[in-house]
Automatic annotation (TrEMBL):
Gene3D superfamilies the UniProt entry points to: Aldehyde oxidase/xanthine dehydrogenase, a/b hammerhead (3.90.1170.50), Aldehyde oxidase/xanthine dehydrogenase, molybdopterin binding domain (3.30.365.10)
NCBIfam families, A to Z: xanthine_xdhB
Protein name: Xanthine dehydrogenase molybdenum binding subunit apoprotein
Cofactors (names): Mo-molybdopterin cytosine dinucleotide; [2Fe-2S] cluster; Mo-molybdopterin; FAD
């Protein structure tokens, strides 16, 4: 076909990088046609599983009578830890401290001690209630205070970050103060609960469909409990109905139980716990108790910080080590501490083992840092924003760029982000107006706050910073994409498909996105740490590069042109003076026996970390952002409204602005829930009482700010050569919600004419706001 034909042909590419395309499954989400694991047509003879859970927080198991359970109609098999063919352990970190089914003792209320397999889910659940277990109760503690009072052991060795001499500087600085802050946990509350279905194969093979962010870990755990090699286990994930970190390790037990039963009974088995069981048996965001001492001068410039971060980790280590580490990594927020000493205290408690949650400890560390700023501002009578800007990290060469973990902040744009938002949100005028309003208002008080975000991107476990992708081009020019990342609604599949669309310059509807499976891409890392697009996008790009190099070599040889004269254009390829439609070009390459498949790979450069020394470069780059929120509180009831929020967020050069805006909005609202309405509560028997929507309040659409303005920093571009010069967007936006918490604090402080820091604890529920108001009245 000659070139003139293309003058009238439609050759505009649809779907390259940086385009605002819809999520590939958006229409399926809203019409209910998206298939999740519980929607998969059930295999013939499918059995259903249920958990038999303990009703003690800490006890020795003296006896267990399961005869009534076995006699219940429909029950096929009941098994305990003694029936596990391999190792009775589902710990994610090799610590062997998390039994699949407890055998001799239980360490939290709701811990699984046996499993029931029955013909129906209802029969399995009802049978599980008929167990007769005799316990000998042991001392238990379910919170940080109890752990400290009882000298609780740590679930993992603590970490310390230090630079300079914080203790000595406390005596040298003009001002010093001490304080304490409590930061609550959070339930993931994914819409699709935990679910796994195992289908037995021949010999030792088993296929598992799991709602998990970490298919390779499920593969490893299933092999572990069945005592079979990983090559016998295939794990598939098409999509999850939300994850937020709650499906990074917490799916292990359900997949393992299903696989054991499937292989034993030679029938497909599904586990799908009820919401109450899910919330009782799976981990949450860690709550923290932060004790701090600050030294600062008359202007509010920080001289030294000495802080301890104690965390409720639960009965086993799970991911508490890296979570508490990341809390310390973000205890500086956006601020330079000349002298600093930070220590983590990962405490064992008799509660479910806490786990990953969006931000992974970063939000807790950052919230503590904003309390430091607030304390200083009220102590010297200044606007907290002024103190924030005074203490920001500086530019290279300023001497104010070294973090507590000795990484240099080389890409700092936080001041530009904050000042741009300060102007666009009209912060100064609104703050002055709010102060005036509070002076004249008897019952309603307002607050406003502008807070920054600086979030490190990379897994702090260096080995996890790798990804693979498999790309095929078929004879008709259609493209098949598979990679190690999982889709939980965040748009990862769409973004990586855009990478291929851009690489080959074809419409995105030519790229088929297929379920993540360990059978195609091995040794995958969890889709976590905001790294999904960074890692998998680069791996897909690498696969595309390999195929394109072969195609260029083929074309150069076939048409006797220089490789530089071969250009991929929208839906066609230019070879010298000739232009060929992409499908025709691929067909010819196939007949020339060009390999049209490639496995791509990527590992993040530059990063390294020495935990024992507290030094290294754990993060490839930082993502930045800022939010300005205005609130109104009722001082008679503690109730409040979010009147307005303005956000300016840095995603580098966005791969997909539409999806990224959605991530910013969703992350902010989820963070707002963590800091305002979502409260976890255990009673004196160690029972989680907030275990259902009736007792646990997540934010609704009606709770969003009445005015909600969200913009991306379109001028930003990642200084590092990430995919398309983009930046991660999964976790950083959650911390924008700290602006709401700080605005509530200002509103409360107005009751005492801003003389002292209100020291609000999180979550700032209406009850806590009201109690803080009453404290301010007594000042």
């Amino acid at each position: 076909m000659d070139k003139s034909t293309f003058d009238t042909a439609k050759v505009i590419i649809s779907g390259p990088m940086h385009s605002a395309l819809k999520h590939d499954s958006a229409h399926k989400h809203v019409t209910g046609t998206a298939d999740y694991i519980d929607d998969i047509p059930e295999p013939a003879g499918l059995l259903h599983g249920a958990l038999g859970m303990s009703d003690r927080a800490h006890a020795e198991i003296l006896s267990m009578d399961l005869s009534e359970v076995r006699r219940h109609p429909g029950v096929v098999w009941v098994f305990t830890g003694k029936d596990v063919p391999g190792v009775n352990d589902v710990s994610s970190n090799g610590s062997h401290d998390e039994p699949l089914l407890a055998e001799t003792g239980v360490e939290f209320h709701g811990q699984p001690v046996f499993a029931v397999i029955a013909e129906t889910r209802d029969a399995a659940r009802k049978a599980a209630q008929k167990a007769k277990i005799e316990y000998r109760d042991l001392p238990h503690w379910s919170d940080i205070d109890g752990a400290l009072e009882n000298g609780s052991p740590l679930v993992i060795a603590p970490m310390t970050l230090q630079r300079g001499d914080a203790k000595a500087e406390m005596d040298n600085a003009p001002h010093r103060l001490k304080g304490q802050m409590r930061i609550g946990g959070q339930e993931h509350f994914y819409l699709e609960g935990q679910v796994a279905m195992a289908i037995p194969g021949e010999d030792d093979e088993v296929t598992v469909w799991s709602s998990t962010q970490h298919p390779s870990e499920i593969q490893h755990i299933v092999g572990h409990v069945l005592n079979i090699p990983s090559n016998a286990v295939t794990v598939n994930v098409r999509r999850m109905g939300g994850g937020f970190g709650g499906k990074e390790t917490q799916g292990n037990q359900f997949a393992a139980l299903a696989a054991i039963a499937a292989k034993k009974l030679k029938r497909a088995v599904k586990f799908r716990p009820d919401r109450d069981e899910d919330m009782s048996a799976t981990g949450k965001r860690h709550d923290f108790l932060v004790d701090y001492e600050l030294a600062f001068d008359n202007e509010g410039r920080i001289h030294a910080v000495d802080a301890t971060y104690a965390a409720r980790c639960g009965f086993s280590s799970d991911l508490s080590g890296p979570v508490t580490d990341r809390a310390l990594f973000h205890a500086d927020s956006s601020y330079f501490y000349p002298h600093v000493h930070l220590t983590s205290v990962p405490l064992k408690t008799h509660t479910v083992s806490n786990t990953a949650f969006r931000g992974f400890g970063g939000p807790q560390g950052m919230l503590g840092a904003e309390r430091f700023i607030e304390e200083i501002a009220y102590a010297i009578g200044k606007d907290p924003l002024e103190i924030r800007k005074l203490n920001f990290y500086g530019q290279p060469g300023s001497g104010r760029t070294t973090t507590p973990y000795h990484q240099e902040v080389e890409d700092n744009i936080i001041l530009r982000i904050v000042e741009e938002l300060e102007e666009s949100a009209n912060y100064q005028a609104r703050r002055n107006a709010i102060i005036g309003f509070n002076r004249d208002s008897r019952y309603i008080r307002k607050g406003i706050a502008l807070t920054p975000v600086k979030f490190g991107i990379s897994f702090t476990m260096t080995a996890f910073n790798q990804a693979g992708a498999l790309v095929h081009i078929y004879q008709d020019g259609s493209i098949h994409l598979n990679h190690g990342g999982t889709e939980m609604g965040q748009g990862l599949y769409t973004k990586v498909a855009q990478v291929l669309s851009d690489s080959f310059q074809v419409d995105i509807d030519r790229v088929k996105i297929t379920a993540t499976t360990t059978g195609k891409v091995p040794n995958t890392s969890a889709t976590a740490a905001s790294s999904g697009s960074d890692l998998n996008g680069m791996a897909a790009s690498d696969a595309a590069r390999q195929i394109k190099e072969r195609l260029v070599a083929f074309a150069a040889d076939k048409w006797s042109v220089d490789p530089a004269e071969i250009v991929f254009l929208p839906n066609r390829v230019r070879v010298g003076e000739k232009e060929i439609f992409f499908p025709d070009f691929i067909k010819q390459a196939y007949f020339a026996r060009v390999q049209l498949s490639a496995a791509g790979f990527y590992k993040t450069p530059k990063i390294h970390w020495d935990r024992a020394a507290g030094r290294g470069t754990p993060f490839y780059y930082f993502a930045y952002g800022a939010a300005c929120s205005e609130v109104s509180i009722d001082t008679l009831t503690g109730e409040y409204l979010i009147d307005r929020t303005d956000i300016l967020h840095d995603v580098g050069r966005s791969l997909n602005p539409a999806i990224d805006i959605g991530q910013v909005e969703g992350g902010f609202v989820q963070g707002m829930g963590w800091l305002t309405t979502e409260e976890l509560w255990w009673d004196d028997k160690g029972r989680l009482r907030t275990h259902a929507p009736s007792t646990y309040k997540i934010p609704l659409a009606s709770d969003r700010p009445k005015i909600f303005n969200v913009r991306l920093a379109e001028w930003s571009e990642n200084a590092e050569p990430t995919i398309g010069r983009s930046k991660a967007v999964g976790e950083p936006p959650l911390m924008l919600a700290i602006s709401v918490f700080e605005a509530l604090s200002m509103a409360v402080a107005s009751v005492a004419d801003y003389k002292i820091c209100p020291r609000l604890d999180a979550p700032a529920t209406p009850e806590r706001v009201l109690m803080a108001v009453e404290r301010m009245k007594r000042v």
